[in-house]
Design brief:
The protein is an alpha/beta fold. It is built from 14 helices and 15 strands. α1 (9-17) packs antiparallel against α14. Bound molecules: pyridoxal-5'-phosphate.
């Protein structure tokens, strides 16, 4: 494509010059002098958000007051924003609701899954899942009187039987960046009559997710990582439409009622995806997320994935060239089919190195015990950022 060696900075510059997503970077407000490689933990600030939030606060809240629930679409926001998230995760409308945290939605999803499979007594979960997934699974099991079977995805077939109600998996491993084969694992769960529950926190927004096409049953994900909705942005819950009418949601708050303003007793779930709602949503955060999602306008997930693989591929090439001699290992799978949107590097002094990078304006993060995690949001990270980060890490290691 060009005449530079892949390790030259000019190579990274040429890739950026040919990048169709390059203009999308202007949809974010990034601080000067910083290379931000932690957008998989807290997405950067989208340029549309400050004014949108100011409008929600000053005009909608300040002036329109309680009328905003109708006049400014507050009441419908969880389902309206859910439809926008749905476009990023391959969900036709009416299956996604936004609100509550990922942890709360995991609780809802796991309880719903067990209740959708009465008579089955086992919840299967990957021991390498994000800790909150494991903690919630244990509590759901105690609450519902089922047991948890921990198994890695590659060992799934050995633990699947007709007592399994659901299989709970993280689509991309938050530490290693390994991407699982969601359609195949979903099919494996279905073969024994179990449901599949996917946690999309580290995949949605950075690679193609096709929940409907993959026949996934339930899924959850974060609003503040790749979706860049801001600190504490609400999460989302996907319920495949075939389960909607039978969904027995454990948190039966009034926003999930068929007629919330009738103030009727007892509870009667709404017919649509609204039944997955709980109580009054955090409107400021929810509408900040809605504005943030505008950064995806006109962008296809195919383009995002192509750039993501280019960024992570460059990071791996440069790590092999410059860091391996200093004892840094690439933990993230090298094969593109198994690689998510971030790259994990292993070094015994990963914590110190992450801190040293930070002093040079390169923000990544450290995951115990020995991982430097570099997240590349293709909407705003450039190939030159990847190059500069790896070269800086080499300089730090060389100076020691
Ligand atoms: C970030 C993350 C969460 C976070 O849950 P919160 O309730 O938002 O704190 C859960 N699961 C996974 C896989 C994550 O990466």
């Amino acid at each position: 494509m060009n005449h530079y060696a892949p390790t030259d900075r000019a190579h990274a510059e040429a890739l950026d010059a040919a990048d169709p997503l390059a203009p999308v970077r202007d949809r974010f407000l990034l601080p000067p002098g910083v290379v931000y490689l932690d957008g998989n933990s807290l997405g950067a600030l989208p340029a549309a958000v400050p004014d949108a939030v100011a409008d929600v606060v000053r005009r909608q809240w300040g002036t329109d007051l309680i009328r905003s629930w109708d006049a400014n679409g507050w009441w419908d926001a969880p389902v309206r924003v859910g439809a926008v998230v749905g476009r990023l995760i391959g969900a036709a409308s009416g299956q996604v609701v936004v609100g509550d945290s990922t942890s709360v939605n995991l609780f809802k999803a796991m309880v719903c899954a067990v209740r959708l499979r009465p008579g089955r007594g086992v919840l299967v979960i990957d021991p390498d899942s994000f800790p909150t997934d494991l903690y919630i699974a244990d509590s759901v099991a105690r609450l519902l009187g089922v047991t948890v079977r921990r198994a890695r995805p590659r060992d799934l077939d050995a633990v699947l039987d007709d007592d399994v109600a659901a299989v709970v998996l993280n689509h991309v491993d938050y530490r290693t960046g390994e991407l699982l084969d969601a359609p195949a694992l979903t099919a494996a769960a279905h073969r024994v009559g179990a449901l599949s529950v996917w946690d999309l926190c580290h995949s949605a927004g950075v690679l193609p997710v096709e929940l409907d096409a993959w026949d996934v049953d339930l899924a959850v994900g974060c609003g503040y990582k790749y979706l860049s909705g801001g600190p504490g942005a609400p999460a989302y819950l996907y319920v495949n439409q075939r389960h909607r009418a039978h969904l027995d949601q454990p948190l039966t708050g009034w926003h999930g009622h068929a007629r919330p303003f009738a103030m009727d007793d007892p509870y009667e779930p709404a017919a649509g995806i609204d039944r997955a709602r709980v109580g009054t949503p955090a409107i400021l955060s929810l509408l900040a997320l809605e504005a943030a999602l505008g950064a995806y306008a006109g962008v296809t997930m195919t383009e995002v994935r192509a750039k993501s693989l280019s960024l992570t591929g460059l990071a791996i090439t440069l790590a092999d060239a410059f860091l391996a001699v200093h004892g840094v290992d690439v933990v993230t799978p090298r094969s593109e089919e198994r690689r998510g949107g971030h790259v994990a590097l292993r070094h015994p002094r990963a914590a110190d190195l992450t801190e040293a990078l930070d002093k040079h304006g390169i923000i990544g993060d450290f995951r115990r015990p020995d991982i430097i995690r570099l997240g590349f949001n293709p909407l705003y990270v450039r190939h030159t950022d990847v190059h500069d980060a790896v070269r800086t890490l080499r300089d730090i290691l060389t100076a020691e």
